[in-house]
């Protein structure tokens, strides 16, 4: 069973009105369990729309969207995924711990279970000592780690992320990329990750899905085969070759680049 499966998906906003927009057309995409896939493409090509369709925050106009082998709406009710956006979106009046507990509350988990799970997640993202702090007392990078802990709190098999590190400085961003990879590897979580950064997509992904300008389509899929993914990997020939392949696919949509070695 795949983590995500989209077949023949089209999304039209404001259908039949003068401001009708075809945001996505003919999207076929299958993501395997444990796979890390990034979506990259020019502004307005439909990356966020695609993520929101997978999350069942908006319905597809046509085609099918399945998560964990279920229709997207059922997967949402079953909390099959966690979601994290560019803004951490924490509740300022709740402590860090109570922010992480929120999805567990929605699921009706007991207080003891919520406490234990929140402690586990905060340890995973390196914030065990900050459980009683409020979001305003944390840096942007720390707030984003809380958002990731919250997204993972119900142990979802799938993580959906929309430019989660977009607002952070480069150093923090690279550190969080490494932390995210370690967490996904440890937990076996599949991830769909929207980004504007080619190096970020290459560093994180098993596959980079390159989208064409509106109406968004999948222009190319670039497999990324880095032997290791640590700081040194960012200086490796394989890393630069993969960046070149993604850049070429973005410049020349329609031409499928050669797979990286
Ligand atoms: N709720 C909506 N109503 C009408 N049009 C929308 C809506 N949401 C998105 N669109 C349109 O759909 C297209 C795709 O938008 P989307 O936000 O998915 O692009 P994106 O690739 O994520 O862009 P960016 O990289 O700038 O964040 C755009 O033309 C946008 O204006």
UniProtKB/TrEMBL annotation:
This is NitT/TauT family transport system ATP-binding protein. It comes from the Bacteria. The keyword Oxidoreductase does not apply. Residues 4-238 form the ABC transporter domain. Signal peptide: none annotated. PANTHER family: ALIPHATIC SULFONATES IMPORT ATP-BINDING PROTEIN SSUB, TAURINE IMPORT ATP-BINDING PROTEIN-RELATED. SUPFAM superfamilies: P-loop containing nucleoside triphosphate hydrolases. The keyword Transport applies. GO terms for molecular function: ATP binding; ATP hydrolysis activity. Keywords: ATP-binding, Nucleotide-binding, Transport.
């Amino acid at each position: 069973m795949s983590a995500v499966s989209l077949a023949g998906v089209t999304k039209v906003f404001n259908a039949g009105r003068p401001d009708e927009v075809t945001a996505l057309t003919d999207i076929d995409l299958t993501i395997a369990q444990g796979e890390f896939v990034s979506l990259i493409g020019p502004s307005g090509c439909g990356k966020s729309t695609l993520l929101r369709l997978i999350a069942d925050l908006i319905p597809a106009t046509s085609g099918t969207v399945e998560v964990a082998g279920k229709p997207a709406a059922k997967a949402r009710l079953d909390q099959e995924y966690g979601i994290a956006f560019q803004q951490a979106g924490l509740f300022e009046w709740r402590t860090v711990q109570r922010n992480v507990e929120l999805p567990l509350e929605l699921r009706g988990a007991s207080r003891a279970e919520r406490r234990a799970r929140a402690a586990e997640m905060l340890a995973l993202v390196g914030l065990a000592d900050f459980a009683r702090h409020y979001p305003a007392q944390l840096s942007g990078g720390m707030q984003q780690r809380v958002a990731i802990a919250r997204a993972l709190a119900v142990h979802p098999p799938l993580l959906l992320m929309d430019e989660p590190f977009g607002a952070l400085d480069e150093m923090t961003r690279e550190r969080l990329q490494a932390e995210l990879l370690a967490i996904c590897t440890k937990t076996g979580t599949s991830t769909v990750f929207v980004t504007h950064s080619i190096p970020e997509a290459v560093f994180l992904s098993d596959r980079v899905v390159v989208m064409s300008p509106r109406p968004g389509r999948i222009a190319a899929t670039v497999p990324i085969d880095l032997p290791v993914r640590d700081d040194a990997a960012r200086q490796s020939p394989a890393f630069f070759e993969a960046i070149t392949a993604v850049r070429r696919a973005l410049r020349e949509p329609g031409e499928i680049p050669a797979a990286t070695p």
